[in-house]
Amino acid sequence: MKHTNSWASTVRRAQGKILRGEVKVLTVDVFDTLLLRRTHPNFVLKATVRYVARELGLDVDFVERCRNRSWQMETAQSISRGFDADASVVSHFESWVRLMIGDSRSNAQITALAALYLRVELEFETDCLGPNHRMLELLTTARAAGVRVVAISDMYLSSAHLRQLFSSHGIADLVDQVVTSGDVLLQKRTGRLFAHCLREGGEIFSGGLPRDLSTLLHIGDDAIADGTMAAKNGIESIVTYDLGLMRHRHLQHYAGALPPAYAAADAAHHALRSEARMRPLQALGATRFGPVYAGFVHAVAAQAVADRVGSVWFMAREGWLLGEMYEQAVRSGLGDGRIRWGYLYASRLATMRAQLAEFGEHEIHSIGANTVDRAYGKLLAPLMVGREEADQILGAVGLHFSQPRTDDGLQALLSSAHFVRVVGEIGERERAGFRRYLERTGFPSEGRVAVVDVGWGGQIQENFCRALELIGSKVEVLGYYLGTDHRAEERRAKGLFIRALVVDSERSVGAGAGAFSFVQGIELATRSPHGSVVGYSEEGLPVLADEAGPGRMDERVDDPSIAAIQEGVLAFSERYFGFASLAGVQADDSVVLARDVIDVVSLVPTRRDAKLLLQFNNVANLGMDEGIRLGGSASLLAPRRLLEVLRTTLWQEGTLAAAAPLLGPLALLAYRRRRGRMIATRHDAGDSAWPASVDLPQEFHDGVVPDALGLDVPSLRRRAAARSDGRKVVLPPTIVGVRDLAAVLSIRWAFRAFRGHGLKATMKGHAKGLLRFVYKYPPLDILKGHLLKR
What we know:
Layout: E1 2-4, H1 7-19, E2 25-28, E3 35-37, H2 41-56, H3 60-80, H4 89-101, H5 107-127, E4 129-131, H6 133-144, E5 148-153, H7 159-168, E6 177-180, H8 181-184, H9 192-199, H10 201-204, E7 216-220, H11 223-232, E8 236-240, H12 243-254, H13 260-275, H14 280-307, E9 311-315, H15 319-331, E10 340-344, H16 348-354, H17 361-368, H18 376-380, H19 387-395, H20 407-414, H21 417-441, E11 446-453, H22 459-470, E12 474-484, H23 486-493, E13 497-504, H24 519-524, E14 533-536, E15 542-544, H25 550-583, H26 587-603, H27 607-613, E16 617-619, E17 627-629, H28 639-648, H29 652-659, H30 663-675, H31 713-721, H32 738-751, H33 759-776, H34 779-789
Parallel strand pairs: 1-8, 2-5, 2-7, 5-6, 7-8, 9-10, 9-11, 11-12, 12-13
Antiparallel strand pairs: 3-4, 14-15, 16-17
Helix pairs in contact: 1-6, 2-3, 2-5, 3-4, 4-5, 12-33, 13-25, 14-15, 14-25, 14-26, 15-25, 16-22, 25-31, 26-32, 27-29, 28-29, 29-30, 30-32, 32-33
């Protein structure tokens, strides 16, 4: 019996023996050898239990007790007949169904239900497994060398069922024979399954019982079942304890009950990690932004059902990505497929122009919130009049384009008949196009709808609702946001329905509050590749910003990087929503995870993450085209330059993380706590089967035109992402590592908010996983192995 520390080492050793002709029959374990689990085995069992409970209308605990009781009964019968503690999967499922429904169904109906539930469990099992690519290399070598491959597993599923799993993962043609304990009621762990295979050599080992057992080689991951028991039967074996995979397995499988969203996210992350390497920006999207947006979109899907909205509309350029994720969530069974969704080409500028009836305090305040320039020219920028006409308007009241605003000058301008007429004409023209655009895109004229945006003050929603009122719409608009700040509170007081689904600066107790140090970064990562919407044409089509304009030129530099981040986000969310549906994760659980990850990426980012994000451009889109980077490069060796950058940067934590990893952001947290300048808090903000794809009803898109311009945004994203950094990186072992936990603990200390948020269970999981890892493979042995290799 040989031990190796990685599958790569195992494959090299086995390939050498095969190529030297020393192996005639290769036997391999299945689970965590040929097929790697992305979740705990009980994950699948509990998912089937929830499915059955929902289908039969029974209590989940009762269904689970019946399944456990059925297994005990079947294994007891096997033992009484002289076999091992195992059971045939068919008899197990039929017994389970009979315990749940008694004699209320005929035998034929019970058999049919058992077969249905077994098919469902196989689908779940398929989605929670992934091929071990290293072992596929070995099987390919064995097939080329004429070595017979036999898969042997301690599993209640039959060999035919394992064949189905192999087919789903491209392994079926590489395996000659499959033997399971569920077929013969004998297990590897007792050694009797190996003995059975040797006795039945004529069937299992083609050509009869091997004369020399040295021509047999077994490979597996269990020291007892695949090592000791194989040796007792005279079979040479290689037991693999892959150090990289074990870090995930001990956390996910043996560390106890992780918070449900953490378990689903870690499973999704592990699936991505095992499938392929990713580009750095894709990895950033998958590990940092993916959990944040997935938690938000999950909450949107749940809230839309709770509020009984007729349709959900994703606004602004941030909305396209969120809309795609919403469809992923609904297809995974996390929302109501009868609720339509669409995308609205909208922006602060376009909705402001559409609601213009007069130019007053509301417009002046909105413009002032988006620029520090107080010149009259900036005040007129949203009207998008030419320079010559702007000079005429201002000159008529004795003002100049670049002149700083004064109260008297504003009063004179707002009282100008020429100015009032120009504003009225622009508003009427824009509203006509706005009305036609809503008709074209299928937006309802009455009922309750939800509009979704990243955040933060609800300005677009306020303008949108004003424009709807002016065109006579009777729609009730509910606003869903990832985060909202004090400006949203002011608009709530005016009667707008604004709901923060992840974090609210006026209501949070610390968790997720880091979002308000990183608002531009959170918005930028969701930005669609098309330009900002500046208005609506007479035909009812959105008008996009000039591609040659200064603001758009600044944005286009970042488009490939943002597209790569979004590819990572979508890859993560597709898998996360599937595992979340399978595990029964609630929206509140997803929000808990989103808050923790927000804090890590915004307040204590890694140096690599900070450097990737600091170069992004943030462009104001109220007609001013003012661009500014999230941050700048600075070094501790140049403290004066560092202080200058910190005074002007949009993201102080990222700037410090690039200059002094970990210590810089933590020092800033400590400074803020001492100064008492943390974000104000008042009270807490937060108070199905998983088929591969849920068939959505026709109403899901009925009458909706999600892309009025026909831009095919996903294709634009793919082309843009292809221009990003081509290097590849390996994702870390877990979605929230030890460094991240330390960062979140520091953030909770700074905000004086230690309670809840899944931290206790996650820390306990990491600790138990580490202890298990050390116990199973002592560090001294690892060190000894490395020294011997040298």
